[in-house]
Amino acid sequence: MGTGGITFNAHVVSNTWHHKHVPSVADDSVLQRDIEELLSRWGGLQMAVKNQWGGHDSLKKSQELAQHLFHLFSQSNVITVEEIENLLHESLLLSFNTEIEDGSIEEVAEQLMILHEEHLRGSH
């Protein structure tokens, strides 16, 4: 494990996280908090932050990723899981010089999609 674009495996979000932590409400602050919480449970991202693979401002970069996701969800009702996967992959590669190939990007993208759908349901 390390920097320099090294691929690694990381613990992924638990299968039951969504059922315990995702309220069906339209409140933007709840959506933002849930995105931040989901990302804080993503082992790959947290490893990159802890080891400062994105430099001394790694924590800030992870917070910017959460903000970017929040704005994406706030701006559009039509988002695909592939778009989220691409955003996560690109962010890890460009911000942290890291590739994750353990399936966690896809899992986190699916969980984020669920958050987005729950938010949309709560807002109608």
UniProtKB/TrEMBL annotation:
Entry-linked InterPro entries: Pre-rRNA_process_TSR2 (IPR019398)
Pfam families named among the record's database cross-references: WGG (PF10273)
UniProt entry keywords in alphabetical sequence: rRNA processing
Claim: rRNA processing is one of the keywords in the record: yes
Gene Ontology biological process terms, A to Z: rRNA processing
Family: Belongs to the TSR2 family.
Name recorded for this polypeptide: Pre-rRNA-processing protein TSR2 homolog
